[in-house]
Amino acid sequence: MKQQWQLLPQAPDEYMSACGVPSVIAQLLYNRGVKPDEAELFLAADQRLEGNPFLFPDMSQAVSRIYKALLSGEKIAIYGDFDVDGVTATAALVEGLSWLGAKVIPHIADRFCEGRGLQLPAIEELCSQGVSLLITVDCGIGNLVETKQAQEMGIDVIITDHHIPSATLPQAIAVIDSKRSDSRYPYPDLAGVGVAFKVLQALFHEDGRKKELAKLLDLVALGTVTDLVPLIGENRYLVREGLKVLNNTHRIGLQEMIKLARLEPGSLDTEHISWTLGPRLNAAGRVGRASNSYQLLATHSTEEAHRLAVELGEMNTERQQLTNEVLSKTKERLVHKASFPLLIEGDESYPIGVIGLVAGKLVDEFHKPSIILSLGPDVCRGSCRSIPEFNIVSALEKCRDLLHGFGGHPLAAGFTLTRENLARLEERLMSLAVSELSHLDLRAELAIDAEVALSAFAGDTFNLIQKLSPFGKGNPQPVFLSRQVEVTECRSFGNQGKHLELKLRQGDITWRAVDFASQKTREEVTSHIDIVYSIEKSSWGGEEVLRLNLRDFAPSQPR
């Protein structure tokens, strides 16, 4: 097996009885670290999970400065990152401030011309437009120099971000960051759009229109899910409520996108955000201008909404094609490096907008830290994706002397460096990977919530499982193991017959199952198999039915 099956420990009997829920639900809660006295709130995911925005450091200063700008009619710029989190955070803050009568100018960073974070040319352009207050969203925490430059131009800066700050904070009017070490806010894992939403809650806390903020939760759900922050704590409430708004969204741009993607309003969940809506919104920042995604979220023109939705769909197709082309070329070049613990490859032709996606696909396939570079004549940009066993940011920190700059998280990061330093960087990173990984069995682990018989899902069990939603990072869709399942039918389908559809029987229970994930062939299917799967709804003959979505399978061993 390419994946190591990891059956999670069974919950103690006292835990199962203390939760007061059916045993399969109690096991799922135990696996997610939910204490018995927290079970009711986790399943309810209601307003009790909301944190007080004034527990953020500097929130009062931010509110005071924004109200000063509102009263004096100052121009306020909202400066957002080019991914979905930054775009949705910008749209939410612009819309919320406009309700208060603000003069707001949105600025979405350009991946190709500007890069991430605050950039001096953009600040100078905003200054020329008369901006005197700049509010960042999903960026800025590391821009100490640029923040100071803005202040010297006469622009006050409020930082709102969710990335880990360094020991020194920007010298801004306020620094609102859920990960500040001195923060008393109970939920540090908000996305950038979540932090922006808390700023709006603070601004509206004594305003009679506070309930109007719920209209922005579709944006919060889009940014939170797409940015892969853990769907625990307050994020559960924000996304659950946000999905309700998204399924009945008033934004004509989203309506057009949903229609063109052939999705059904009323049934959208986190999977539709992760696999369909999020990638389309992100595509603009990867192969075009992220400001197009912002405009789709903000437009009130039906014609513009349709045009932008079509354009984003076309950009997403282009993004997919570019990703596949670069991935194919990269894998060909990596053949002779297959035994190395770290994969690194670059080329002048690799588009900056897809190198991170390619690195991620390599990690998914080979379970090794992967770095893809777009090589320029003088400066190279690299995008890294990693595995839990190798902290890529820590590794880059040990190469700081070779880099222009770097940043990110333990599992995902980016950097720039001069081309003359590239060989030394590869040598040093490879040495670190050999030291930390060469003694390990580098195979991905497939976490399994429980081993059950197929009969366990009779009755209302599926609906009970859905009470754990929304599913995502930190709260994955439940995965089960059933052994000695008989295969009564099997056929290949899809592009080049890469997928499998099976009919499975255990005792007097029969299920339909599909296999999109394992990449195993029909010839590998034996008469009896052990299956790892999740349960999902699908359409069959115009009706909704349940089926098994196989994650992996293996021949059953004789008992």
Q: Would you write up a description of this structure?
A:
There is one protein chain. This protein has about 550 residues and is of the alpha/beta class. It has 3 domains: about 5-40 and about 445-555, OB fold (Dihydrolipoamide Acetyltransferase, E2P) (Beta Barrel), CATH 2.40.50; about 55-210, inorganic pyrophosphatase (n-terminal core) (Alpha-Beta Complex), CATH 3.90.1640.30; about 335-435, Diaminopimelate Epimerase, Chain A, domain 1 (Roll). The protein is built from 18 helices and 18 strands. It has a 5-stranded parallel sheet with strand order 3-2-4-5-6, with helices on both faces. Strands 7-8-9-11-10 form a 5-stranded mixed sheet. Helix 9 (about 215-225) crosses helix 10 and helix 13 packs antiparallel against helix 14 (about 300-335). The radius of gyration is 25 Å and the shape is globular. The two termini are about 20 Å apart.
